[in-house]
Amino acid sequence: MRKANKKLLVMSCMLVIFSLMIYPSFTLAAPPDRLAKARAAFDAGKMSDMSDFDPSKVVQPTGDTIKIAIVASFSGPAAMVGQIYWLCVNWVAYDINKRGGILVDGKKKLVEVIKADHMSKPDQCKKITERMILQEKVNILLGTNGGHLMKIINETANKYKTIAVNIWSPGDDLMDAANFSRYAFYCSFSAEQVGRGLAYYYGQIRKKEKLFYILCQDYSFGHNMADGFKTGLKEYYPEAKIVGEDFHKLFLTDYASYLTKIKASSAEVIFTGDWNPDAGNVLKQSRQMGLMLPFANIYMDDPSTLHAVGVEGTKGLVNLSSWNTGNPHFKTSGH
Question: What global pTM score does this model have?
């Protein structure tokens, strides 16, 4: 259910960005009569027949299209993340294209989705982003897994005046004074919201465990997550205590040294912001080592991982996900 919520978030973000790009006056400051016309032109309640949708066999339209580049990891250790993006975005595009596309300056345009593999590497991220803008002439850059990579996408988009949409990188520094761009749109929850939200749950709702161990990835996002959780504990659970804090290399495969330290500590809960494959690996390895502590997390929800650790291995997992309300301009009657 939580994974479904995240997919709905991606789909909602896509519809919002389409409208911002094509009908900014409708979305941002349109009179009631124009809003009514916009709603009538695209009724979200009248979805296409999607029974023949297959994300592995999507035929992309060509010609004068609305081009969206999914800048993500389609290869390497985090390849599964890119595939999730691909499925979600193409689902929305497929529906729109079946209806004939989106009206732009009196002409219907279909949506074309393009893969842009950054391989989880900064140099490749910059290279592929520039290629999408300068050669593929995309209208929108959509990404990505890794706040350090999203920052590169935003910087490149700003340089070439192209819209960049962040749907998955919760780093708090991505839209601060130093990194803000008029071309960057942030559609994810933030790391501090996550950290404070989980702290609120343990301090104001559950009111049981008090000893926490932080284990996060060693880059800006992981540190943002840890800081958010510590801020939240001070605010909502001052009697709680951090008994340990470690940051590991991204895409690490062996977590034994970290898990051994946690096992020897007095921790009652492990807080982590890890995303896959790290989230799945650390959960599976902890259970294999007999460490059955609960994880407070946001990305330990992959069905294959949960199946691998079994019912006993999932006991105590606390997964925080976002609750999203619909944009009023896309409200469907009865929903």
Answer: 0.80
